[in-house]
Amino acid sequence: MNGSTPSLWLTLFAAQGGDRRSLREQICAAIRQALHSGQVTQGERLPASRVLAADLGVSRVTVEAAYGQLEAEGYLRRQVGGGTFAALAPVAGRVSVKPRSVATLSRRGDTIVAGGGCRDTRTPSAFAGASPDLSAFPLDTWNKLGNRVARREGRDLLGYGDPQGLARLRAAIAHYLNQSRGVRCSADQVLVLTSSQQALQLIATLLLDAGDTVWVEDPGYEGARTAFSAAGAHLAAVPVDADGMDLAQAPVGAAPRLIYLTPSHQYPTGTSLSLVRRMALLDMAQNRRCWIVEDDYDSEFHYDGRPLPSLQGLDRHDRVLYVGTFSKVLFPALRLAYLVLPPALIEAFTLARTVQDGHTTQVAQAVTAAFIEDGHFAAHLRQMRQLYRSRRDLLHDELTRQLAGWLDVAPTSGGLKMAGWLPRGKELPSTREAARLGVATPGMSKLFLGPARDGWLLGFAALDNASIRSGVEALARVAQRV
User: Is the peptide bond before 127 cis (omega within 30 degrees of 0)?
Assistant: First the structure.
């Protein structure tokens, strides 16, 4: 049917059928209702009389009579050989607007919505988000691998996949983690997911009950807090200092069910958990039978010295769940992440994945596996480390030169963002002034559960040198005005 959909007219016509009016009058009433309610707008083409008659199960003569009457009333405009069109616009005061229903969410739903969601910027700008530089990604190589995978494995990848992930990719991930991060795992322990946030949701669903206590870094990652809070957990803030999560300031009392942290490159301060604290944390997890979630979200980008080994690699009692992602190291649209599980949790997490979204797209998994196996992944990492290190150095130098005494730049040995601390009370007005100048400065204060500090978390990886310099120049003007 041209114009409005058949279901609209069938629904409206059926609603007129409870009285003794003729079929012609019932059709007229249905069309008037559609016009007055705005379901059909002025100038919209109505179905041809032959088509509408067939849809409604009436004679064409009846529809023609209804159209003729409505044309005479001014509701319709008919053109010989051209069709029938709505001639009446909805009139204010005549339209019946139904009040919006109020959504009643579950407690978990309310918690998720209150968390504000996790949104990343779609296009890089100074200094929003922590997007990788997509212009430096070897897209031609990726496309060639995609064509090769399609030729060799195309039809085999069209069906439902293993909920744990493609075996080739799991083996490639395990080998990479063993070599680069000191993670002790086999391919059987790797669960391929669509995002690190999905990993956190799975962890919260399977390991937490309402009322359980979770220790989190303060300041820390909002996405993790939302996942755990939505499961009904109680969040206990553990302060972060120059050596990472300070266990000496952890809450006294009952043992936590779970401890979440970013030990290699703390989010958002950029510090690393010291080896002494790593060993103390692992001993405590074993003695008090709690789980540790190690989020290694950007460990690939370490610029100064050699990174400390992963917590998971030091764990001898299978208490650590290790979370990683390809979103920052390859590209966000790939939607691939992974969770390395203690052996005792593999079956439960895999089964839970089957009732969540089944499996991750097999084609993307196969291309990623080939990208790693053929050495492109390692080469891309080397190139990006050099590029991002130069941009980190430039941003640090420019901030130190132009905002000395106003912005206290936190040292960072890696990652895609740089933290800076502002004078008390300056975050909100400075952020507003920066936005007026076209510069985004994500705030730090919202990342605290306890007493907050004012600051910015400035993304730099996707910015060229000119953008970094001009962005800092804008921030220098902010410092003079606020």
Answer: yes
d(CA 163, CA 157): 13
Do residues 55 and 8 lie in contact, with contact meaning Cβ atoms separated by under 8 Å? no
Q: CA 384 to CA 131: how far, in whole Å? A: 12
Peptide bond into 219 cis (omega under 30): yes
The two structure tokens encoding residue 82:
């051209």
DSSP, res 71: H
Query: Quick one: angle between helices 60-73 and 49-56, nearest 10?
Result: 120
> What is the 3-class SS of 20-37, one letter each residue?
CCCHHHHHHHHHHHHHHH
Instruction: Establish how many alpha carbons lie within 13 A of residue 165's alpha carbon, considering only the half-sphere containing its beta carbon.
Output: 29
Q: In this structure, what token pair is assigned to residue 221?
A: 């990652």
Give the C-alpha separation, 9 to 12, whole Å. 5
Burial level of 316, CB count in 10 A (0-12/13-18/19+)? exposed
The H-or-E segment that residue 478 falls in is helix 465-481
Q: Regarding beta strands 76-79 and 83-86, do their DSSP bridges make them parallel or antiparallel, or are they unpaired?
A: antiparallel
- What Å distances lie between residue 459 and 15, 299, 321, 399, 430, CA to CA? 57, 16, 27, 13, 17
The model's pTM is 0.80
The secondary element (H helix, E strand) that includes residue 113 is helix 107-114
Contact of 272 with 264, CB cutoff 8 Å: yes
Alpha helices in 166-247 (DSSP H): 167-180, 196-207, 222-230
Rg (CA), the chain: 30
User: Could you read off the pLDDT tens digit of each residue along the chain, which spans 482 residues?
Assistant: 345 666 677 777 777 766 677 888 888 888 888 888 888 888 888 888 888 888 888 889 889 989 988 888 888 988 877 889 988 666 544 444 455 556 788 877 777 777 666 666 666 788 987 789 999 999 999 999 999 999 999 899 999 999 999 999 999 999 999 999 999 999 999 999 999 999 999 999 999 999 999 999 999 999 999 999 999 999 999 999 999 999 999 988 878 999 999 999 999 999 999 999 999 999 999 999 999 999 998 888 988 877 778 999 999 999 999 999 999 999 999 999 999 999 999 999 999 999 988 999 999 999 999 999 999 999 999 999 999 999 999 999 999 999 999 999 998 889 999 999 999 999 999 999 999 999 999 999 999 998 999 999 999 999 999 999 999 999 999 999 88
Beta bridge partners of 235: 214
Q: What number of other Cβ atoms are within 10 A of residue 481's Cβ?
A: 12
Contacts of 152 (CB under 8 A, 6+ apart): none
- Token representation of residue 170: 């799991």
State the DSSP code for 214. Answer: E
In single-letter form, the type of residue at position 10 comes to L
What residues pair up with 260 in beta bridges, in sequence order?
A: 216, 293
